[in-house]
């Protein structure tokens, strides 16, 4: 993506933003801004957008590639997929399945172990697998003799044995031996004599330093690692000998970039260094990279690279028992691990959780930042499925106690807010409410903050779930009177608008319309879809089914365009009472044909029950007994434990942006029940039963 946009590692934020803008061809300004926000983490561009669900991020990435392919035939090459994380493989699978009709060819290389690491690969329907067997000895012998025409049979035999059928390995070893013929002792090739060991001191030293920087390296980085007589000439000599090759264009403006010809060269060069030398060089490489990054406001984009070098330096320094104080190196490693975790949060929650856990290992109990690091490890552990609900609760409880002991009330309150979600999700409503009340009590009296506003909003949500509309409105008013962010504002306007309408004040529609305007301003797909959904329900009551269905379709369209599958299916289920009342029964049956299999697959008892209910009604009115019998057989949908990530219904709204889909409505109050049609009331009643825990089975995937 950086290469396509011409983005260099030395570009500042303004330059990166401009280059990415020029690459995007999306004509619609809202969709263009949405795609840009979802691509931003991939190119190191700062964004205030909340981390999206994987489905939404993948959709934006796919749209970007589709735009490139629409301009002309495109080949996307992915190497070494066996090293890829699960999220990236999932994206490639979706790309394969959803880009039909475009001149886009995706070529992926991987070792056989990819089948163990990623059993779902390759995607079946639209993929072709070409398995490359190891070369035969005869084929390898021909290859070696082309590179080493004067090689004696014993040397050819040794290279054949070491190559194991790999042409690249055989070619590289043969190329090195062409430059430096080595003796064969006892029928074996002494690897300690393989170049770069046989190089003169200066080229050998440069190659060893380069091995620390990475598989690609820059002349500037090498220059920072030691004294060099004539670095430019030395690098040119290494290129001539085919130890490395220039990379063009360089990703560092004004600096020359190189890459190793083969991993074998780098491995041998790295092995030549002592632990102490590696430790000092890794630390020095980090010191070179950091100012290069901060100068262009791109520190977070390099965080993973910096975390690698500082943690390697720390581990090696400890193993070498170096005498110097390592506290500064520990601080740097912790800082870059945390930055790497934040960078990965919108991309890969599992990888982000790993970074936070590693940072936690370097954060002693007495350090003031430990409560926050522990909380973030818990959030990402839950979001990635590495922690179940009980594990998340224990993590947050520990984080809260540490924050209280440190006197950090804001951090403690954030932990209590997370506990509200997790305990409510587990079905422990009283404990969830107690944590919100505890957090409010902790912060009231201090300077108002967005954290307190969020706690008030959660309290409003809790009252809404309990059917206490009047009390819900009071808490919502409190939340909106304090400093707050867009996510809290949109959530609270949904709650307040819904509550006002339930109490018979249809001016509550103004709150729902304001929530939609704010959602449009943020460009957040989930907020947009939910805002349209709220409006569709009440406008369907006040203005008729036709207008309600228009808004509901807008919600569905947003979800489909942006890959928000769970909310999209909920929007389809929410349309059923409108379709029923509008007499559009054929459309209703077609829609339940979508929602029922999805509910069955995801264990979503609510969407499934609502779909079965309306499907059965229509079939009963039409006298289709066979269809009704099938519906009865499908009544028993699979139910999953709330502790399992794979289930679909959340209990409470969570601003940590897990992949949940917040519930929105409760049963109408007595004051406004006459405003609702029976079908809408039945749907809301089912949803309320779920929200109070009697039907809760899990969380959105």
In short:
The protein is mainly alpha-helical and 701 residues long. It has 33 helices and five strands.
Walk me through this protein's architecture:
This protein is mostly helical. It contains 33 helices and 5 strands. The chain has helices spanning 2-5, 13-23, 29-43, 54-70, 86-98, 114-117, 137-147, 153-163, 167-179, 201-213, 219-224, 231-240, 263-271, 275-294, 303-319, 327-344, 349-361, 370-383, 389-405, 409-426, 429-443, 450-465, 469-481, 486-502, 508-522, 525-542, 545-562, 565-574, 576-582, 585-602, 605-622, 625-633, 678-691, and strands at residues 74-78, 104-108, 216-218, 244-247, 257-260. Strands 3-5-4 form a 3-stranded antiparallel beta sheet. It has a two-stranded parallel ribbon with strand order 1-2. Helix 22 packs antiparallel against helix 23 (469-481).
The helix tally amounts to: 33
CATH architecture of the domain at 524-701: Alpha Horseshoe
User: How many strand segments?
Assistant: 5
- Name of the level-1 CATH class of the domain at 524-701: Mainly Alpha
Major β-sheet strand ordering: 3-5-4
Indicate the CATH topology of the domain at 524-701.
Serine Threonine Protein Phosphatase 5, Tetratricopeptide repeat
Beta-strand percentage?
under 5%
Gross morphology is globular
In this structure, how is the largest beta sheet organized? 3 strands, antiparallel
Rg for CA atoms: 30 Å
Distance between the termini: 27 Å
Low-confidence stretches: 184-188, 636-701
Into which percent range does the helicity of residues fall? 55-70%
Q: Decide which structural class fits the backbone.
A: mainly alpha
Q: How much is the average pLDDT?
A: 82
């Amino acid at each position: 993506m950086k290469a396509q946009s011409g983005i260099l590692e030395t570009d500042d934020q303004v330059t990166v933003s401009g280059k990415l803008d020029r690459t995007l061809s999306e004509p619609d300004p809202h969709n263009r801004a949405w795609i840009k926000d979802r691509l931003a983490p991939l190119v190191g561009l700062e964004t205030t957008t909340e981390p999206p669900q994987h489905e939404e991020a993948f959709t934006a990435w796919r749209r970007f590639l589709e735009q490139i392919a629409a301009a002309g035939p495109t080949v996307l090459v992915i190497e070494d997929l066996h090293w890829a994380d699960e999220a990236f493989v999932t994206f490639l699978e979706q790309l394969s399945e959803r880009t039909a009709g475009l001149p886009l060819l995706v070529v992926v290389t991987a070792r056989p172990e990819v089948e163990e690491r990623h059993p779902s690969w390759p995607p079946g329907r639209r993929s072709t697998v070409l398995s490359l067997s190891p070369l035969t000895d005869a084929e390898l012998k021909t290859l070696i003799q082309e590179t080493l025409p004067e090689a004696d049979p014993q040397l050819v035999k040794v290279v054949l044995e070491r190559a194991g059928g790999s042409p690249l390995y055989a070619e590289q070893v043969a190329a090195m031996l062409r430059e430096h013929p080595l003796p064969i002792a006892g029928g074996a090739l002494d690897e300690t004599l393989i170049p770069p060991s046989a190089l003169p001191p200066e080229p050998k030293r440069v190659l060893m330093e380069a091995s620390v920087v990475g598989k690609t390296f820059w002349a500037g980085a090498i220059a920072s690692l030691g004294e060099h007589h004539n670095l430019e000439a030395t690098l040119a000599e290494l290129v001539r000998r085919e130890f490395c090759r220039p990379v063009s264009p360089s990703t560092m403006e004004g600096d020359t970039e190189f890459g190793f010809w083969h991993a074998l060269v780098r491995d041998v060069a790295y092995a030549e260094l002592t632990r102490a030398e590696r430790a000092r060089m890794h630390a020095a490489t980090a010191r070179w990279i950091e100012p290069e990054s901060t100068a262009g406001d791109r520190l977070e984009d390099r965080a993973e690279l910096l975390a690698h070098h500082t943690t390697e330096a720390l581990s090696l320094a400890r193993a070498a028992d170096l005498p110097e104080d390592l506290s500064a190196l520990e601080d740097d490693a912790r800082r870059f691990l945390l930055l790497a975790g934040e960078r990965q949060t919108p991309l890969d929650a599992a990888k982000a959780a790993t970074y936070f856990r590693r940072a936690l290992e370097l954060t002693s109990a007495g350090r003031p930042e430990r409560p926050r690091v522990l909380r973030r490890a818990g959030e990402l552990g839950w979001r990635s499925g590495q922690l179940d609900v009980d594990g998340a609760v224990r993590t947050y409880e520990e984080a809260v106690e540490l924050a209280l002991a440190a006197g950090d009330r804001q951090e403690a309150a954030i932990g209590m807010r997370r506990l509200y979600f997790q305990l409510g999700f587990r079905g422990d409503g009283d404990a969830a409410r107690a944590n919100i009340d505890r957090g409010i009590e902790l912060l009231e009296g201090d300077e108002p903050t967005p954290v307190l506003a969020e706690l008030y909003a959660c309290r409003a949500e809790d009252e809404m779930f309990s059917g206490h509309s009047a009390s819900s409105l009071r808490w919502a008013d409190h939340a909106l009177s304090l400093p707050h962010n867009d996510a809290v504002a949109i959530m609270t306007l949904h709650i307040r608008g819904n509550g006002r309408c339930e109490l018979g004040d249809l001016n509550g529609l103004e709150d729902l319309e304001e929530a939609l305007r704010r959602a449009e301003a943020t460009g957040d797909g989930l907020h947009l879809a939910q805002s349209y959904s709220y409006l569709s329900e009440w406008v369907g009551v006040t203005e008729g089914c036709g207008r309600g269905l228009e808004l509901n379709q807008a919600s569905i369209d947003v979800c489909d365009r942006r890959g928000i599958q769970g909310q999209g299916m909920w929007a389809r289920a929410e349309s059923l009472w409108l379709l029923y009342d509008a007499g559009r029964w054929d459309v209703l049956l077609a829609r339940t044909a979508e929602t029922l299999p999805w509910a069955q697959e995801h264990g979503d008892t609510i969407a499934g029950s609502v779909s079965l209910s309306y499907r059965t009604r229509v079939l009963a009115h039409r006298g289709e007994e066979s269809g009704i019998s099938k519906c009865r057989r499908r009544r028993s949908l699979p139910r999953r434990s709330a502790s399992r990530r794979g289930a679909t219904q959340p209990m409470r709204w969570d601003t940590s942006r897990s992949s949940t889909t917040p519930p929105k409505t409760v049963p109408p109050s007595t004051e406004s029940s006459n405003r609702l049609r029976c079908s809408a009331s039945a749907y809301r009643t089912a949803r309320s039963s779920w929200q109070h825990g009697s039907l809760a089975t899990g969380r959105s995937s």
